[in-house]
Structures are given as C-alpha cells and as structure tokens.
Amino acid sequence: MAEAPSLTHFDAEGRAATVDVGGKAETQRQAIARGRVVMEPATLARIVEGQMAKGDVLAVARLAGIMAAKRTADLIPLCHPLMLTKVAVNLTPTLPDAVEIEATVALTGRTGVEMEALTAVTVAALTVYDMCKAIDRGMRIEAVRLSHKSGGKSGIYEAE
User: Which entry of 11, 20, 130, 136 is annotated as an active-site residue?
Assistant: First the structure.
C-alpha cells in the first residue's frame, strides 16, 4: 500500500504553503467551539435589559461570529477557503457575570472546520467586548476552545 502524502504547511523547499487536501475524501465535518466573556454583573444586566448604547449586543455579536466563520481564510494564514453549509452562533447570558458563546460549523468537504468555529467564538467575544468596553474595560475573554470535532480521517474529538 502506498504511503499517504504528509499533510504539512511546508513545501519541498521548506517554505510555508497551504496543505494539499486534493487527495482526501469528502466527508461530513462539524466542529463546535465555546468560550465566554466575563464582566461586571451590572454590565450583563444592561446587556440583558437591552440598555447598551451601541444596541443589541447579543444580536450583533451573533452576526459578527457568523460573518467571521465565513471569512476565516482571510484572517488565518494558510487556512483553506471553505463552502460552509452551516454556521450557528449562540450567545447565552449566564448569571451573575458572563456571556457564554457556542459556535457550530459544518460542511461536506476535505478539510475540517475547527478554525472556523474557533474564529466565530473569538470574534463574537471581541464584539461583546467592543460594544461594552465604554462601561466595563475589565471584561475578560476566557476559555475559547474546541469542544467537539467530527468527520475526516481522525474521527471524533470530544473535549473533557
């Protein structure tokens, strides 16, 4: 049996290059990423009550996350541009002081969507920060991580 070519970000001369996924089979692939923005309880209360000067924080952050997932190849060097079939970003206020963010990204293709899910969460979190920083500069973006991955040769990953 012939050995599969190495998947690497370096070409034969050692220069950075996009991985050639042309020989890989197309499979259903999905990734879920999570993270949160921790803030003062009063800031969260204003978000929930719709009292932020810049508008509906959760709606804008959701849209920003979706848009970011679709533009990941423009943001992260060497990522493949992908035709995503699903991008869902959910933001959930969690008392007393956080907004939990979860992004689910899926496609049928030759490469995974982990970077797209992580990018969606990160940009959604940055959007929450941007919309609230005038009243709470001490907010923290925390625990951005891959929590699930399925499809492809490496199979299923579930974070603990």
Answer: 130
